[in-house]
Design a protein that fits this description.
The protein is of the alpha+beta class. Helix content is 39%, strand content 23%. The relative contact order is 0.10.
């Protein structure tokens, strides 16, 4: 069963030490806008077959890897469902160790198969760095629900229901009884809010999140937010119009809008910083030719790129030199070979240089200003 990759999954994969044999790491781009299920099955077979040929039947771990290949192919053919916002499928298999893990990611991945003593995790680590974990709490005077939004998915963690009565109007002695009951209800509501705030803090300490949104009536927002721990207040991004009794489809729609707003805000800030830095002749550049040059020199600290931007080109398999022209490598003099996408090749090289990747959602107005790709630099080039 596939599930969304999480930080704790990465930690667990990093700690996995096979007692014997190798680990087969399988990455497949699965964007339903471009690929059908049949195409993905065909691509899977081709990738796995090519890896087995490279490995060779005389390899001591050939049979173990062959079993991995069967399991991976069977999963893609029979169990994987091509739907939703999932753009990448990752499978780790080590048959001699009875190990088989499947993960999904919302970011496209480069098709590849790696057979190694350890899981190949670099693409997943880069993707996790890109996505923000959002906590959404929906609360009123009686009920509360806590959701986690991450990489296009939403997960409900807790649900609270109290026995607080609504506002009761009783006469009493000059209305004193009514006011006493109202004060009691108000205190119970505060305790309810405090219980919810404590649950959010517990969730934060267990698995840090980046942003917090609260679905609550406008007149109650200040009261609730004042009860949040300072750790949470610093991550509070605002209020959304949701009620605990809302249908899950309404919650999903609002969650998607919240995530979109966060991504758009971050995209705009990154692009603004990049364009500003270039304008000041600071440590930044943009355009595919300039960015490739910075990668060649090891100067690319953070690659900023449109999430659907790609360019065919050429690569030197000896030293990693990338170019848009069919020319000999300017670093080692060897001939270059055609590649489908020099942008994707460049991303991999940036990660090897311990750099970062910042994806910008296609359609961002300022993305065209940088030619869909730019970079923050370690040093001037």
């Amino acid at each position: 069963m596939a599930h969304l990759i999480r930080t704790e999954d990465i930690k667990r994969l990093l700690s996995f030490q096979p007692e014997t044999g190798l680990v087969t790491s399988f990455y497949l781009k699965v964007d339903p806008k471009y690929f059908s299920k049949d195409q993905l099955v065909t691509t899977t077979k081709s990738l796995l077959k090519e890896k087995m040929v490279q490995l060779g039947e005389d390899h001591p771990d050939y049979l173990g890897v062959k079993e991995d290949v069967k399991k991976i192919q069977r999963f893609v053919e029979q169990e994987f469902e091509l739907r939703g916002r999932i753009r990448g499928l990752t499978i780790f298999s080590s048959s001699p160790n009875n190990f088989f893990q499947v993960f999904q990611v919302a970011q496209p991945v480069k098709n590849r198969v790696v057979v190694d003593p350890d899981p190949y995790l670099r693409p997943l680590v880069a993707i996790l760095d890109e996505h923000k974990r959002i906590m959404l709490v929906i609360v009123d005077h009686r009920d509360a629900r806590i959701f986690e939004i991450y990489m296009g998915e939403i997960l409900e963690h807790e649900e609270f229901t109290t026995n607080i009565r609504g506002k009761i109007k009783e006469g009493g002695w000059y209305g004193l009884e009514e006011r006493r009951i109202e004060r009691k209800i108000e205190n119970e509501i505060i305790r309810h809010y405090k219980q919810v705030a404590d649950a959010i803090l517990t969730r934060f300490r267990k698995n840090h999140f980046d942003y917090l949104f609260v679905g609550i009536k406008e007149e109650d927002f200040s009261t609730f937010s004042n009860l949040l721990h300072s750790y949470l207040k610093s991550r509070l991004k605002g209020r959304v119009n949701l009620h605990p009794k809302d249908h899950i489809n309404n919650i999903l729609a609002e969650a998607a809008e919240v995530e979109r707003q966060i991504e758009e805000e971050e995209d705009n800030q990154i692009l603004e910083n990049l364009i500003d830095a270039v304008g000041k002749a600071d440590l930044a550049t943009f355009g595919i030719v300039n960015v490739l040059r910075s990668i060649h020199l090891g100067a690319c600290q953070t690659l900023v790129v449109g999430d659907d931007y790609h360019q065919p080109g050429y690569a030197c398999r000896e030293c990693g030199y990338l170019t848009l022209q069919p020319e000999n490598c300017q670093l080692c003099g060897k001939s270059t070979t055609p590649v489908e996408d020099v942008v994707e090749e460049g991303m991999e090289e940036v990660l090897l240089q311990r750099g970062e990747i910042k994806y910008i959602t296609a359609g961002s107005p300022r993305l065209e200003e940088i030619g869909h790709i730019g970079a923050f630099l370690r040093f001037p080039v």
